[in-house]
Write a structure and sequence with these properties.
Elements: E1 3-7, E2 12-14, E3 23-24, E4 35-36, H1 66-69, H2 82-90, H3 100-104, H4 110-120, E5 127-133, E6 141-144, E7 147-150, H5 155-170, E8 176-179, H6 207-212, E9 214-218, H7 229-236, E10 239-242, H8 245-248, H9 257-266, E11 270-274, H10 284-298, H11 322-340, E12 364-366, H12 374-383, E13 388-390, H13 400-404, H14 407-410, H15 422-434, E14 446-448, H16 456-462, E15 467-471, H17 476-487, H18 514-531, E16 537-540, H19 548-560, H20 566-577
Parallel strand pairs: 1-11, 5-8, 5-9, 9-10, 10-11, 12-14, 12-15, 13-14, 15-16
Antiparallel strand pairs: 1-2, 3-4, 6-7
Helix pairs in contact: 7-10, 11-18, 12-20, 19-20
C-alpha cells in the first residue's frame, strides 16, 4: 500500500495497517516512522527502484473500451489519446506492443515531464500548503465498481470538506487556497484569510507551478474516491496530503483496469495522512522518490515499465459489480438522511440487503415522487400502448401502502391524524423488507406514483432489468407548495421507507421544515440516478422546457422501445400535449 504518514499536533508517525508484509525502515526517515511494503511486493523487502523487475508486455491482452470509462482529464493520456500516442512515439515504442499497464495508466510526454521537473526545482518553496480546485459542485457521472453512471451528488463535497476545514484551521498567510466553485459553497461567503484567493477575479498562480512552489498539496478525493492530484503533486515535487485512504486514495474502486493501474502506482508513493500536520517538516528525499516513481510509470522516458507483481491477467474477468456500487449509493443516502434529522437513516435498509424475490421482467418503474407529473407520464405511456398502474386508479404496489401509515391515514380520515408509534414504525420497516415486490400484477407494463417512489430501492432490487423514468421538477419550491396544498396531511415525506413520516406530521415537533423536505426531494432524485445505470434511466422534467411534453413523448417512445407509425406518433403526441400536467 502507499507509504502513508499520519500526522498529529505533537507527533508524526507512519500509519501502519495490520499486515503480514515485511516492514522497510528507510534510513532517511525519522525513527518514529515506518514504511509499509505494498502488497504487490510479494514478500520482498523493497530496497530501491533499481531492484524493480518489469514484467514483459502482454500484446495478446484484449484492450477495454478505454475512453468510455476514463474521466475527462485522463482521456488524452491513455491508450488512443493524442498525448499518449505522442509520449509513446517520442520513446520509439510500437503502439501495438505496449504493455497492458502502459495502455491503462495516464502518460505524460517527455516535454511535459521535463517541464514539471524543471518547475519543481525552480526558485524554492513559497508555500507550505496549497489547494486549487472545486469543493462544492455536485458530482456527475463517473465509474464505481466498473459501473458507469451517476455517483452520489454530494460525493465531492463530502470528500473535499476536510480540505476546506484543514485550510481554515492550518493555512498561514503565505499558503494558497483557491476554490474554483466558491459560489456553490454555501458556508464560504468571504475569504478565510490572506491565503484565500477564491474570490480573486484571476488566478495568480498556475496549477502545476503552484504545486511545485508548495511543500505539500492537499489531495482530497473527488467524484470518485481518488484524485489525479496525487501523481501531479508527485511530479511537481510536492508531497501529497490525504485525510482517508478509503475516500482519497482508492482508485481501484473504479473496478476497471484504469483504477487498478493507478492504484498500483499510488501505492508506491509517499503520501501523508493527517488531521494536523503543523509539526511535520518537508522531506526532499521523499519528494525525490515520488518524482522517480512518476517518471518511471507515468511517462515512457525510461521505457514501458510495469509495477512489480502487477498481473492484469488476474483481472481479465472484471465485470460490473452493481451490488458494491449500490452499497456506495445507499451509504451516501443514509448519511444524507441523518444530516436532515438525526436517526432518520434508521429507516433505510442495510447497504447490502436481499429482497424476497427477484424478477427478470423489464418493468417500467416511475421513480418520481408525487406531484412531478406522474399522472401525465401515465397518460403518455398509455398513448404508447402500455398497461399502466397509477395510484390514482388504485395504489400499484399491493399491500405496501398499508404498512406505511396508521389506519386513520389509510382510511383517509385526515381530520383526526394519528401519530405512528415507534413499535409500529419498526413493524412497518420489517414488513417492507419481507414483502414480495414482484407480486405486481402480471398484466402491468409500468407502475408509478405513491408508493413506488417511496419503496423504489426495494423495487429496483426486485426488478434489476427495470427501465426507470425519473420525473423531476426544476423548481423544488413550486413542488413543495403544490404538494402541501393538495396533500398536506396524508402525503409521505419524499424519502425511502417513510414509515409514519409525512409532509405534515401529526406531532408538530416531529414535522419536517420546508428546507428539510426540499432536501429530501433532491436526495431522492440523487439516489435514483446513483442506483440506476445510465442505459436504464430516463429523466423527464415536464415543467422546464417550452415544448417539454412534445420532447418528452418522443424520448419516452424511444426509451420504451415502442415503434409507432408517423401517424400514430403524431396522434399520440397531440393527445399528450392537450392534457393537463399532473
Amino acid at each position: 500500500m502507499a507509504r502513508i504518514i499520519a500526522g498529529a499536533t505533537t507527533l508524526i508517525i507512519l500509519l501502519c495497517h495490520a499486515s503480514a508484509d515485511p516492514v522497510y525502515q528507510p534510513e532517511d526517515t525519522a525513527g518514529s516512522m515506518c514504511l509499509l511494503q505494498t502488497g504487490m511486493m510479494q514478500g520482498r523487502v523493497r530496497q530501491g527502484e533499481d531492484k524493480m523487475q518489469t514484467p514483459a508486455a502482454d500484446p495478446q491482452h484484449a484492450p477495454l473500451e478505454m475512453l468510455e470509462y476514463a474521466p475527462g482529464r485522463m482521456q488524452q493520456r491513455i491508450q488512443g489519446g493524442a498525448t499518449w500516442i505522442q509520449a509513446a512515439q517520442e520513446a520509439g515504442l510500437n503502439l501495438s506492443e505496449i504493455s497492458v499497464f502502459g495502455k491503462r495508466i495516464p502518460k505524460f510526454t517527455k516535454s511535459e515531464a521535463m517541464h514539471l521537473l524543471s518547475i519543481s526545482n525552480r526558485g524554492g518553496k513559497k508555500h507550505r500548503y496549497n489547494f486549487l480546485g472545486s469543493a462544492c459542485n455536485p458530482t456527475g457521472i463517473g465509474t464505481m465498481y466498473n459501473v458507469r453512471g451517476y455517483l452520489p451528488e454530494a460525493s465531492r463535497r463530502f470528500r473535499r470538506q476536510w480540505a476546506v476545514d484543514f485550510a481554515r484551521s492550518q493555512f498561514a498567510d503565505q499558503d494558497y487556497l483557491s476554490l474554483t466553485d466558491v459560489n456553490a459553497c454555501a458556508d464560504h461567503a468571504q475569504p478565510m484569510g490572506p491565503f484565500d484567493k477564491s474570490f480573486s477575479p484571476e488566478r495568480s498562480e498556475d496549477y502545476l507551478d503552484l504545486m511545485a512552489a508548495s511543500n505539500f498539496t492537499l489531495c482530497p478525493g473527488g467524484d470518485e474516491p481518488w484524485s489525479m492530484r496525487v501523481y501531479e503533486a508527485a511530479a511537481a515535487g510536492s508531497l501529497p496530503i490525504i485525510m482517508s485512504r478509503t475516500e482519497d486514495l482508492s482508485p481501484k474502486t473504479r473496478g476497471d483496469d484504469h483504477g487498478i493501474a493507478i492504484q498500483a502506482v499510488q501505492d508506491l508513493l509517499y503520501v501523508i495522512q493527517t488531521n494536523q500536520t503543523d509539526s511535520f517538516a518537508y522531506n526532499e528525499d521523499m519528494a525525490e522518490h515520488n518524482r522517480r516513481i512518476f517518471i518511471r510509470y507515468h511517462t515512457f522516458i525510461e521505457g514501458d515499465n510495469t509495477p512489480p507483481g502487477l498481473d492484469f491477467k488476474q483481472n481479465d474477468d472484471i465485470k460490473e459489480n452493481v451490488a458494491n456500487k449500490e452499497g456506495v449509493c445507499i451509504d451516501h443516502y443514509r448519511r444524507g438522511l441523518n444530516e436532515v434529522r438525526k436517526g432518520l437513516g434508521h429507516h433505510l435498509q442495510a447497504s447490502f440487503f436481499k429482497v424476497a424475490k427477484v424478477s427478470d421482467k423489464p418493468l417500467l418503474i416511475g421513480a418520481g415522487v408525487g406531484t412531478t407529473a406522474t399522472r401525465s407520464l401515465a397518460t403518455a405511456l398509455q398513448y404508447l400502448g402500455q398497461n399502466v398502474s397509477h395510484c390514482a386508479n388504485g395504489c400499484n404496489v399491493p399491500a405496501v401502502q398499508m404498512f406505511l401509515a396508521p389506519e386513520s391515514h389509510r382510511k383517509h380520515q385526515f381530520f383526526q391524524p394519528e401519530q405512528m408509534t415507534e413499535s409500529s414504525k419498526e413493524e412497518c420497516l420489517r414488513s417492507l423488507g419481507e414483502f414480495d415486490y414482484t407480486s405486481v400484477p402480471e398484466g402491468f407494463d409500468a407502475i408509478l406514483d405513491t408508493p413506488v417512489a417511496e419503496t423504489f430501492l426495494y423495487l429496483w432490487r426486485s426488478f434489476p432489468n427495470a427501465r426507470v423514468v425519473l420525473t423531476e421538477r426544476d423548481n423544488v419550491h413550486a413542488w413543495l407548495s403544490s404538494r402541501m396544498k393538495h396533500h398536506r396531511r396524508h402525503a409521505f415525506a419524499p424519502m425511502q421507507n417513510p414509515c409514519g413520516e409525512f409532509l405534515e406530521n401529526p406531532a408538530p415537533a416531529m414535522s419536517f421544515t420546508d428546507k428539510q423536505l426540499e432536501t429530501l426531494f433532491h436526495m431522492h432524485g440523487d439516489l435514483v440516478r446513483c442506483l440506476v445505470p445510465a442505459r436504464q434511466l430516463l429523466e423527464i422534467n415536464m415543467f422546464k422546457m417550452d415544448n417539454s411534453r412534445a420532447t418528452a413523448f418522443g424520448r419516452l417512445a424511444n426509451f420504451v422501445g415502442v415503434k409507432l407509425s408517423d401517424e400514430a406518433m403524431q396522434a399520440g403526441r397531440h393527445g399528450f400535449e392537450s392534457t393537463d400536467i399532473h
